[in-house]
Amino acid sequence: MTAQSPLHTQPGQKEKQKLAEQIAAEGLNCPRVGVVDDAGKDDRGTMIRIHCRSLNGSASWDVRGIAAKGAAGLRFEAW
Q1: Integer Cα distance of 51 and 62 in angstroms
Q2: What is the largest distance, in Å, between two alpha-carbon atoms of the chain?
Q3: CA distance 70 to 56
Q4: In the chain, where do the E strands start and end?
Q5: Residue 1 pLDDT
Q6: What is the pLDDT of residue 69?
Q7: According to DSSP H, which parts of the chain are helical?
Q8: Most-buried pick from 14, 53, 54, 76 (CB within 10 A)?
Q9: Phi, psi of 59 (to 5 degrees)
Q10: Which residues of the chain have pLDDT under 70?
């Protein structure tokens, strides 16, 4: 597994909103999308780590986005 580092190009506000909606559609919570890191690859596909924050900013957690080979879009899971 490679070290995690911020993606060269961070998603803009519209992309962050879309990510938050996609994450919510999978039953996870990420009201505020923060920095997105490159999280390497494994047998499931290429991964990103999405730093999430609560609406009031008091809590933070991470969600994993997985781009599986042959799949349309990302799949999300709790980090």
Answers
A1: 5
A2: 38
A3: 37
A4: 5-6, 32-42, 45-53, 60-67, 75-78
A5: 46
A6: 83
A7: 13-25
A8: 76
A9: -130, 150
A10: 1-4
> What is the identity of the amino acid at 64?
R
What pLDDT does 3 receive? 56
- Enter the tokens of residue 5: 């580092």
**Which residues make beta-bridge pairs with 22?**
none
45 — phi, psi (to 5°)? Answer: 140, -165
Matching residue, tokens 């690859």: 41
Distances 30 to 42, 70, 71 between C-alpha atoms, Å: 24, 25, 22
As beta bridge partners, residue 40 has none
Q: For residue 49, give the amino acid letter.
A: R
Half-sphere exposure of 10 (CA within 13 A, CB side): 13
What pLDDT shows up at residue 71?
Answer: 80
**pTM to 2 decimals?**
0.86
